[in-house]
Specification:
single chain, mainly alpha, Arc Repressor Mutant, subunit A, 2 domains, SKA1, SKA1_MBD_sf, SKA complex subunit 1, microtubule binding
C-alpha cells in the first residue's frame, strides 16, 4: 500500500511539472535559462580574448631576446669597465679605493695636468656572443600554386639546439621558398598533356615524374633531391639535409622511401 501511495505522489508531481502548476519549479527553470544565457556570453568573451592574444607569444619572445642583449652588455660592463673613472655612490670597496689611488698617482706624475674627465677613453665593445633579434615571418606568396607555410620565430625557438645547430630561421624559410618553387614548376609540367610537350628535356622530365607516381604517392605533392637541382639549382649537402631534418620535425614535409629514391612530400 505504501509503495502505491509513493508512486501516486511521484505521478502527481510529474503532472504538476508538465502542467506548470508548481510555481517554484517554474521559477527555477527560468533561473536556469538566465544562467545558461550568462554562461554563453562569458564563453563568447573568452573566445574574443583568446583570439586577440594569439600574437602575444611572439611579442614576448622578442622582448626576452632584447632583455638578454641588455643583460649581456651590463654583465660585461660590470666586469670590465674601469671603476676609477666613474664614481659609484656608496662604493667603498677595496677595488674602488685602489683604482682611485692609481689614477691619482698617474695624474700627479704626468707632465700635463689634464683632468680625468677630459681624457680620451673608449670602453671596449663586448665580445660575448649575443643572440640576434627575431626577424619577421615572411608572408605567404600568392604567385605559387603549391606552397608549404613558412616557419615562425616561435616555432624555430622550440626546435632542439642539437637539431638546428647554426641554422637560422631565415635559412629555413629560404629553403622552403626553393621547395615551393620546385613543386610549382614540377606540377605545372605534369598538368600538361604529353602530346603538347615539344622540348626533349621537358618530355624526359615528364616521363620520369610520371613514373614516380605510384599507389603510395597518388594525390601527394613531392619532389626529390634531383628535382631541387634541376628546377632550383640547389645541390644537396650537409646543410640541406639538416634543413630537411628541421622541416620534418616541424611537420612541414615528410619522407617516402622508394628503393634508393627519397620523396620529400609536402604537408599542408
Amino acid at each position: 500500500m505504501d509503495e502505491l501511495l509513493q508512486k501516486v505522489r511521484q505521478l502527481n508531481r510529474r503532472v504538476q511539472i508538465l502542467d506548470g502548476y508548481d510555481d517554484d519549479i517554474s521559477r527555477e527553470c527560468l533561473k536556469l535559462l538566465e544562467s545558461i544565457k550568462e554562461i554563453k556570453c562569458l564563453i563568447a568573451e573568452r573566445k574574443k580574448i583568446l583570439q586577440n592574444n594569439q600574437t602575444v607569444p611572439e611579442d614576448q619572445m622578442r622582448l626576452i631576446n632584447r632583455l638578454r642583449v641588455l643583460q649581456a652588455r651590463m654583465a660585461y660592463m660590470n666586469v670590465n669597465f674601469p671603476r676609477g673613472i666613474i664614481r659609484f655612490e656608496n662604493d667603498n670597496s677595496p677595488a674602488r679605493q685602489t683604482s682611485e689611488e692609481v689614477s691619482s698617482v698617474k695624474i700627479e706624475t704626468s707632465d700635463e695636468n689634464v683632468p680625468v674627465s677630459q681624457t680620451n677613453y673608449s670602453s671596449p665593445q663586448p665580445t660575448a656572443e649575443i643572440s640576434a633579434l627575431t626577424v619577421p615571418t615572411p608572408k605567404p606568396r600568392g604567385d605559387l600554386q603549391i606552397s608549404v607555410s613558412y616557419v615562425s620565430n616561435l616555432e624555430f625557438q622550440n626546435v632542439p639546439p642539437y637539431m638546428k645547430g647554426r641554422l637560422k630561421v631565415t635559412d629555413v624559410n629560404l629553403f622552403i621558398d626553393y621547395y615551393n618553387n620546385t613543386l610549382t614548376k614540377k606540377y605545372e609540367l605534369l598538368k600538361k598533356s604529353k602530346n603538347t610537350i615539344k622540348v626533349k628535356n621537358e618530355l624526359d622530365k615528364f616521363i620520369n615524374w610520371k613514373s614516380q607516381i605510384t599507389s603510395d604517392t597518388t594525390g601527394l605533392y613531392f619532389c626529390t633531391a634531383d628535382d631541387f637541382f634541376t628546377e632550383s639549382g640547389i645541390k644537396f649537402g650537409k646543410k640541406e639535409f639538416s634543413l630537411i631534418t628541421v622541416l620534418r620535425h616541424m611537420k612541414r614535409i615528410r619522407e617516402i622511401r622508394n628503393k634508393k629514391l627519397i620523396y620529400y612530400v609536402a604537408c599542408f
